[in-house]
């Protein structure tokens, strides 16, 4: 029947287009990259073509996947700790405004310290291994989660706050039933920023402490002048970052499916 409404209010053609356009953009970018290396005769030592990267991956797939697993472990662990600690601190600070005024400047000052400068010190303090890498990921992810969650928790409409008071709701009931659900879209903004920064933090830590992970692959392959292998590791990092980002997007759509409707 020609008048049948589309599922979920989205025409099938629009859904296909929204899925195909990112893929076409990626294919076009790879095509331009490949063409540039061929037309200008760029050697693989300086800029490997896509086939060189595929060959490097096929040469050492086990090594690359093992180090990718190490990066995923550090990234997800640090991100999880940062999210748990950031959400808890944001709730505490928005519940006690005097504590917020006393603590927030300290958090801003700590966040302004370049994390690249902290990475070597973490190795000195915590030694080699996963611990300094996880701590660096936590330090990078923590502030965006806190700020975004606080912004969401303090943006509750006045009429909803008045409603909770008229129903004699306690402070924590108002948080759980009104303020927290209202803050979820803003919280997920912080989570999406944090998960992208988490991968960067893991790579920075691995470059400074090249005992494992894709960052160490980049360092060691650079020392051995194996540029295609370094680009293979960079490609895996890009895929990892994209996958983790869209997993957070998927979680947002499952947890707050109404957010897109009210924002449109």
Task: Tell me what the structure shows.
By secondary structure, this protein is mainly alpha-helical. Helices cover 81% and strands 0% of the residues. Mean pLDDT is 85; it is low at 1-7.
**Mean pLDDT over the residues:** 85
Number of strands: 0
Total DSSP helices: 11
| Cα-to-Cα separation, first versus last residue | 29 Å
Gyration radius, rounded: 23 Å
Helix content: over 70%
- H and E string: HHHHHHHHHHH
What's the story with the biggest beta sheet?
none
Shape: flat
Briefly note the structural class of the backbone: mainly alpha
Low-confidence stretches: 1-7
Strand content: under 5%
Summarize this, please?
The protein has 264 residues and is mainly alpha-helical. It has helices spanning 12-39, 50-59, 61-95, 97-111, 115-126, 131-153, 158-166, 171-208, 214-223, 227-255, 259-263. The protein has eleven helices and no strands.
């Amino acid at each position: 029947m020609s008048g049948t409404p589309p599922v979920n209010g989205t025409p099938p053609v629009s859904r296909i287009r929204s899925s195909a356009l990112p893929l076409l953009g990626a294919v076009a970018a790879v095509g331009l990259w490949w063409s540039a290396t061929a037309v200008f005769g760029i050697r693989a030592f300086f800029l490997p073509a896509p086939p060189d990267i595929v060959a490097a991956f096929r040469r050492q797939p086990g090594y690359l996947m093992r180090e990718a697993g190490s990066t995923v472990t550090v990234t997800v662990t640090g991100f999880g700790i940062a999210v748990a600690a950031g959400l808890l601190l944001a709730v505490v600070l928005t519940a006690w405004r005097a504590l917020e005024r006393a603590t927030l400047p300290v958090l801003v000052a700590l966040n302004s310290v370049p994390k690249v400068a902290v990475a070597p010190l973490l190795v000195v303090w915590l030694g080699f291994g996963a611990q300094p890498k996880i701590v660096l990921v936590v330090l990078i992810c923590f502030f965006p989660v806190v700020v975004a969650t606080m912004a969401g928790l303090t943006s509750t409409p006045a009429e909803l706050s008045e409603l909770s008071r008229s129903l004699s709701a306690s402070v924590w009931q108002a948080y759980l039933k009104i303020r927290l659900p209202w803050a979820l879209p803003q919280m997920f903004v912080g989570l999406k920023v944090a998960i992208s920064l988490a991968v960067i933090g893991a790579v920075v830590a691995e470059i400074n402490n090249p005992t494992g992970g894709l960052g160490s692959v980049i360092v060691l392959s650079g020392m051995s002048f194996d540029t295609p292998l370094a680009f293979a590791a960079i490609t895996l990092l890009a895929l990892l970052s994209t996958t983790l980002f869209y997993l957070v997007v998927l979680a947002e759509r499952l947890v707050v499916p109404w957010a897109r409707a009210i924002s449109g």
